[in-house]
């Protein structure tokens, strides 16, 4: 399949929605982050509507903390025009990487992965094409950030990701992990099933192997991982709703 001819609907979207969201307590003491009200609706409703508009048709929700509440609220996803399935962590939370590993049987031979608190209004076909063209096992979307929206954590030079670290930053890190990736399941092959690990570990291994492509986006991201981000997205979506009715 060439980079110029593919069906975006054939790319499942894995949404990592299993975390405890401790930064949003007390809101998340009784509900998962996906069900937080944003502009009058659960955040996940906005996320799914955006993905459908972009051309995504299959979503796999990787859930852990209070995941049964998400399944009860959203069911099979048909009211959003999506096929929605669930992969539960089980008794112990598996982290972003472990949850993704467990969901692989539902995801096929290539798939998107999206953080569960990210709202990304971009052209999703563009990174999918870039992933195919790269021939690599993974792709990370990046945004030139310069510390503006959050702490920069990616060194991206000459169209390539040189380093990525959320803990140990260096001055050359002017970009940030945008929150959307594309992966071949082989990228997760060395990681043991049923064990907790993070997607960041996978990305770092792929960089070391020369197997992580980078794709630069230019549209800012929105997120609900912090009270400030939640308030900002709520205001943006309410403004959109108001504009649509006037």
What brief labels describe this structure?
single chain, 246 residues, alpha/beta, 7-stranded mixed sheet, two-stranded antiparallel sheet, 6 helices, 27% helix, globular
Overview of the structural elements:
A 7-stranded mixed β-sheet has the order 5-4-1-6-11-8-12, with helices on both faces. Helix 3 packs across helix 5. It has 246 residues and is α/β, with parallel strands linked by helices. It contains 6 helices and 13 strands. The relative contact order is 0.17. The termini are far apart.
Which secondary structure elements does this structure contain, and how are they paired or packed?
Blueprint: E1 13-17, E2 37-38, E3 41-42, H1 43-54, E4 58-63, H2 67-74, E5 83-88, H3 95-103, E6 111-115, E7 118-119, H4 125-134, E8 138-144, E9 154-157, E10 160-164, E11 175-183, H5 199-208, E12 212-217, E13 222-223, H6 227-244
For the biggest sheet, the summary is: 7 strands, mixed
Helix and strand string, N-terminal first?
EEEHEHEHEEHEEEEHEEH
User: How many helical stretches?
Assistant: 6
Give the amount of beta strand, in percent: 15-25%
Number of strands: 13
From the N-terminal CA to the C-terminal CA, the straight-line distance is 44 Å
Helix content: 25-40%
User: Structural class of the secondary structure composition?
Assistant: alpha/beta
What number is the mean pLDDT? 91
The global form is: globular
Q: Tell me the radius of gyration.
A: 17 Å
Arrangement of strands in the largest sheet: 5-4-1-6-11-8-12
Sequence stretches where pLDDT stays below 50 over 5 or more residues: 1-5
């Amino acid at each position: 399949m060439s980079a110029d001819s593919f069906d975006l609907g054939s790319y499942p979207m894995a949404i990592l929605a299993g975390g405890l969201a401790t930064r949003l307590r007390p809101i998340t003491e009784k509900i998962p982050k996906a069900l937080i009200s944003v502009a009058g609706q659960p955040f996940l409703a906005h996320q799914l509507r955006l993905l459908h508009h972009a051309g995504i048709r299959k979503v796999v929700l990787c859930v852990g903390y209070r995941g049964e509440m998400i399944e009860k609220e959203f069911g099979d996803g048909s009211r959003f025009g999506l096929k929605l399935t669930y992969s539960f962590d089980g008794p112990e939370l598996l982290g972003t990487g472990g949850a993704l590993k467990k969901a692989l049987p539902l995801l096929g031979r290539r798939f998107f992965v999206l953080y569960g608190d990210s709202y990304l209004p971009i052209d999703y076909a563009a990174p999918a094409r870039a992933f195919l063209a790269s021939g690599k096992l993974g792709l990370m979307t990046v945004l030139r950030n310069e510390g503006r929206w959050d702490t920069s954590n990616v060194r991206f030079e000459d169209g390539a990701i040189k380093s990525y670290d959320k803990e140990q930053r260096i001055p050359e890190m002017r970009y940030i992990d945008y929150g959307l990736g594309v992966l071949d399941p082989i990228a997760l092959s060395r990681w043991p099933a049923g064990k907790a690990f993070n997607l960041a570990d996978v990305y770092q291994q792929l960089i070391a192997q020369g197997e992580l492509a980078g794709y630069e986006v230019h549209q800012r991201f929105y997120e609900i991982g912090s009270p400030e981000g939640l308030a900002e997205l709520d205001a943006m979506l309410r403004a959109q709703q108001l504009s649509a009715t006037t």
